[in-house]
Design goal:
single chain; about 240 residues; alpha+beta; Endonuclease, Chain A; 2 domains; nine-stranded mixed sheet; about 50% helix; elongated
Length: about 240
């Protein structure tokens, strides 16, 4: 290896970093620095590549002595396929849990429209829903309310939340707590096995959003528990 040649591990990291910089969701971009989750995925990929290469090299070494049998050829195909699937799964897991940074209210509204515009019920835990004032997003929320697919949880009533309540949304307020939430989240496909949650919060002055699937991270379980607790308290 020459002095100007990067180690294979560094090339993997550079490639993944370039891919991360290109990923976009609506107008919210994936945050540029590699997170701990990204480092973990890189290590997983390198481990998978190393393990797969070792197995394949062992199989191929038999072919140097004599031609590979159909069974060995099959093992080569299966081993390569399993390695590719494992790498793909690791990258998908990283992409689904990576943070996204929105630079403006417009970016947040565009992201929320894409997020809520999915099949099934949506539960919105927000402070005042200022992001929902844009006509396109407002129309989507009204349609969700009419379909009985919208749950809203806010500290205080707003004009929009009351309008949505009048169109069929399930709305819960908690004014007695006198508390403004630091984080906001929206669960989509509520009550289904493929439910997911997007958690928004401010990190170093930037609005960041992280997505988690049911059973993937404790953040989803905590969000679901909070929604269920507030809904039940409202019924009493």
């Amino acid at each position: 290896m020459g002095p100007g040649t990067a180690p294979s591990g560094c090339r993997w990291q550079d490639s993944l970093a370039r891919m991360e910089n290109r990923l976009t969701v609506s107008n919210c971009r994936v945050s540029t620095p590699l997170t701990k989750a990204g480092d973990r995925v890189i290590n997983q990929i390198l481990t998978i590549v190393g393990s797969t290469a070792s197995v394949l090299a062992l199989i191929v070494s038999f072919g140097i002595i004599r031609p590979l049998s159909p069974l060995q050829v099959g093992l080569l195909v299966v081993g390569t396929s399993c390695g590719a699937v494992a790498i793909g799964s690791a990258v998908r897991e990283y992409r689904r849990s990576s943070q996204r940074v929105c630079k403006s209210e417009h970016d947040i509204a565009e992201y929320m429209h894409r997020w809520i515009n999915q099949d099934g019920r949506a539960a919105v835990f927000s402070r005042n829903m200022t992001w929902a004032s844009r006509p396109r997003l407002r129309a989507l929320l009204l349609q969700k309310a009419l379909n009985k697919e919208l749950v809203l949880i806010l500290p205080q009533p707003t004009d929009l939340s009351e309008e949505l309540r009048g169109h069929g949304a399930e709305v819960v307020y908690y004014p007695r707590l006198n508390y403004s939430p630091m984080s906001r989240f929206t669960i989509v496909r509520l009550g289904r096995e493929d439910a997911r949650v997007a958690v928004g919060r401010t990190v170093k002055g930037r609005h960041t959003i992280s997505e988690y699937s049911m059973g993937e991270h404790s953040a989803y379980a905590m969000a679901q528990d909070l929604v269920n607790i507030l809904l039940r308290l409202d019924d009493q």
